[in-house]
Design goal:
It comes from Chryseobacterium arthrosphaerae. ATP binds at residues 26-31. The chain is 55% helix and 12% strand. The chain is of the alpha/beta class. The chain folds into 2 domains: 18-42 and 122-207, Rossmann fold; 46-116. The protein has a 5-stranded parallel β-sheet with strand order 2-3-1-4-5, sandwiched between helices.
Length: 208
Amino acid sequence: MEELHSEAQQAEPPAPKIIGLTGGIGSGKTTVAHFIEEFGFPVYYSDDRAKAIVNESEDLKIKIKELLGEESYDKNGLYDRKFVAGKVFSNQDLLEQLNEIIHPAVRIDFEDWVKKQTKYLVFKETALLFELKLNRQCYKSLLVTAEDNIRIKRVMDRDNKTYREVQAVMEKQMSEKDKIKMADCIIYNNTNLEELKEETEKVIFAIE
């Protein structure tokens, strides 16, 4: 009995459940992520980590330069997001090849991060959850969405972009209707921050 008790004490805690958090441009995904952190749950920001990893990994630097050219990095050796965006925005094949370089590195980084977490839920924030089928690696998917006209106005105000510029970006993304069909949980962000925070709390604490 003592041996069994000792083994039980040494058993590792169960792995946290991974919740994929996503939303299109102007949806309020990042705001929801910050609320989730306020409620005590860790959030892995995939887009932010990807931005860091392309500057940290010498292996990635070599592969990206081979794919897109030396101009992919500036004279200080930093990833030139504007140059890269210009190269891949209208070239789906190049974009897919770039993703094949970056996303495996982000996946490994995320797996290492998860091992350090102690909460029963962890959230993986990523804009391409459904597009890259990353939802299959998650316990549940959580979509933040809003009406198109609201999303467009938010981005116009935030980034000083024209209606057409925002619309062009949205047209490159999976439709909200398709995302809603695929999502396990949905947060509608059509009102104000107070109601968004309340809705976020209700949804995440209902996850079992």
